[in-house]
Amino acid sequence: MLLGDLTYASLSDSENLSGIPVKGSVRQSSFTAAAGYQVVNEPDLSIDALFGARFWQVRASVNTPAPLPIQSASKTESWTDPILAARMNARISPEWSFILYGDIGGFGVGSEKTWQWVGTMNYQLRDDLYLSGGYRQMKVDFDDGRTRVDVEMSGPIIGMTLRF
Asked: How confident is the model over 83-135, as pLDDT tens digits?
């Protein structure tokens, strides 16, 4: 089996520092690609063991109005983490199922550590198409001595699965 997952988050804030308006923003994107083997294959339950990689890109920027000597600064960091994962898919009716997914990685190769867990309820529209809604929590702790990114994100997710 093959699995791909894309995440994107954009945060920004404005503040007055000693009377000077400052705007900061952070944009994070990650792409996870994994391959695996189905270790349990029952009619209403499957469990998969996976391995793969998660590519990260984080961009931070700060902007101030003219005529300050430094009006803007930005920094972009990218790295790739190896991951180990498990996924369980349980059918609760002909059209409905739920998935629990978790992974852990980094191991000091890219980041110090990264992990996530996802839980979704899924509705089967066709034999090959599912709509999903659920919740995700994801964390990354990256420190290369120059840049530190220690972020935890969580919240609702929506998705679509195409099986082939």
From this structure: 999 999 999 999 999 999 999 999 999 999 999 999 999 999 999 999 999 99
Q: Can you tell me the distance from the alpha carbon of 28 to that of 11, in angstroms, rounded to the nearest whole number?
A: 9
Are the C-beta atoms of residues 146 and 161 closer than 8 Å to each other?
Answer: no
CA 8 to chain centre: 7
Tell me how far apart the alpha carbons of residues 164 and 157 are, in angstroms, rounded to a whole number. Answer: 23
Report whether pLDDT(1) > 90.
Answer: no
Residue 38 near residue 26, CB atoms below 8 Å = no
Distance, CA of 113 to CA of 148 (rounded, Å)? 12
Question: What span, in angstroms and rounded, lies between the C-alpha atoms of 131 and 129?
Answer: 7
Sign of CA dihedral 114, 118, 124, 125: negative
The predicted model scores a pTM of 0.85
